[in-house]
């Protein structure tokens, strides 16, 4: 164990392991690394030939054998630091492993009161009572600050995905709209895909709803906003499906629904939405369709995030898969080095959180391909890329254990946390 202080905060004890990134062909020939497990001491027994289990004639009986103590149980959650050599130089990697099979742990999404409310990862962890936390999804930085992908907190759907071309994240081959890291009610983590199934049915029929509390409504579409949103709704109707700086839609319109009836119509607004109120905001053809509704019309709004796996998650954070079935996704970027955050899951259902420091002379950052490899080395069979760069922050037991690349901890809309029950 090594104790250290400095830019990483108060002294933290961590096991330090030196790793080297090598080509997969070399990895295949390397000797497997085996974990050392504690073994309970047992009393030696005499062989039958020596009269095991019986005393010599006339001998006084000896004391009863002491009961054997059970082997100590491994900690449910651990943190370690590793120094890894890359072709560009050394990198510091922090890894948290949480055994979600253990009843004393659960994973959760840490957020503010609304989807665009930002906090530092340490603040998210403190507010949520998390023993460990890592920054979450990419987000609409400096605008709405809402996350780009689907998000689910305690079984409640908060957001759906924005159009793929509006996701402010590095391209990942094979990634699809709605990709998430999800955790079930029983604590089982998995890669999944969440799709919004939503509609508004009024006097003239059913209207499709394309997004939920998303910072970009697709061209020609309709977005649904609830009390989980407190930002500018008009801005969500600007840009194109691939360019956030494209002009706003020439036709924008919104409808306010409360208790199953339209209460207001007009140009899109902004600000807090009262609990129980729903706002439908449309652009282009979506705006024209909403104009068919008038104050007093009865409207039924329904929405749900459906999972490709068929299992509704209790927790979900938007993220792009970079490791599947123990194999790095083909075509991942192997050149750009940055601070990274990632999460993975093992075959035994453990959750792995990982950060790699970058933009420092002592830690040069890693590529997406190397991020996937680091997850695999840590024991993951599936893994995802989270927001990186200045957002990359990991907290373990009230301490920031990695070295974020910015002077101040970046404020982020959500974080993936592990809570001790």
Automatic annotation (TrEMBL):
Signal sequence extent: 1-30
Positions of region (Disordered): 49-71
Pfam family, one: NAGPA
Coiled-coil ranges from the UniProt annotation: none
Start-end of Low complexity biased regions: 49-68
Matching InterPro entries: NAGPA (IPR018711)
Annotated Phosphodiester glycosidase domain residues: 253-419
Keyword NADP: no
Protein's name in the database: Phosphodiester glycosidase domain-containing protein
Organism: Pseudonocardia alni (Amycolata alni)
């Amino acid at each position: 164990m090594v104790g250290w202080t400095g830019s990483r905060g108060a002294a933290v004890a961590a096991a330090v392991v030196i790793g080297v990134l090598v080509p997969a062909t070399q990895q295949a020939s390397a000797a497997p690394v085996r974990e050392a497990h504690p073994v309970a001491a047992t009393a030696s027994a005499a062989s039958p030939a020596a009269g095991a289990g019986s005393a010599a004639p006339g001998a006084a009986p000896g004391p009863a054998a002491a009961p054997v103590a059970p082997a100590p149980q491994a900690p449910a959650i651990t943190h370690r630091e590793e120094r890894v050599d890359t072709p560009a130089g050394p990198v510091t990697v922090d890894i948290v492993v949480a055994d979600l099979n253990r009843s004393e742990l659960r994973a959760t999404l840490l957020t503010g009161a609304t989807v665009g409310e930002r906090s530092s990862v340490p603040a998210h962890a403190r507010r949520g009572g998390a023993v460990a936390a890592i920054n979450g999804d990419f987000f609409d930085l400096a605008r709405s600050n809402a996350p780009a992908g689907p998000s689910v907190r305690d079984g409640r759907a908060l957001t759906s995905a924005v159009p793929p071309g509006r996701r402010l994240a590095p391209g990942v081959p094979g990634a699809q709209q709605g990709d998430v890291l999800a955790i079930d009610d029983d604590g089982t983590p998995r890669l999944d895909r969440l799709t919004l199934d939503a509609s508004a049915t009024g006097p003239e029929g059913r209207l499709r709803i394309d997004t939920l509390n998303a910072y970009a409504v697709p061209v020609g579409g309709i977005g649904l906003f609830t009390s989980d949103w407190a930002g500018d709704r008009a801005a969500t109707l600007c840009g194109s499906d691939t360019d956030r700086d494209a002009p706003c839609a020439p036709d924008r319109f919104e409808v306010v629904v409360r208790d199953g009836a339209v209460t207001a119509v007009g140009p899109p607004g902004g600000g807090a939405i009262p609990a129980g109120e729903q706002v439908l905001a449309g652009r282009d053809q979506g705006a024209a369709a909403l104009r068919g509704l008038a104050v007093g019309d009865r409207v039924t709004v329904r929405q749900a995030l459906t999972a490709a796996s068929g299992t509704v998650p209790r927790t979900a954070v938007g993220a792009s898969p970079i490791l599947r079935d123990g194999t790095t996704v083909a075509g991942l970027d192997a050149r750009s080095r940055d601070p990274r955050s990632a999460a993975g899951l093992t075959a035994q259902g453990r959750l792995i959180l990982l950060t790699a420091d970058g933009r420092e002379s002592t830690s040069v950052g890693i590529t997406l391909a190397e991020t996937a490899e680091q997850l695999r080395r840590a024991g993951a069979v599936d893994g995802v890329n989270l927001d990186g760069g200045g957002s990359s922050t990991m907290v373990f037991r009230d301490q920031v254990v990695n070295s974020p690349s910015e002077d101040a901890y970046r404020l982020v809309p959500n974080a993936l946390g592990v809570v001790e029950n």
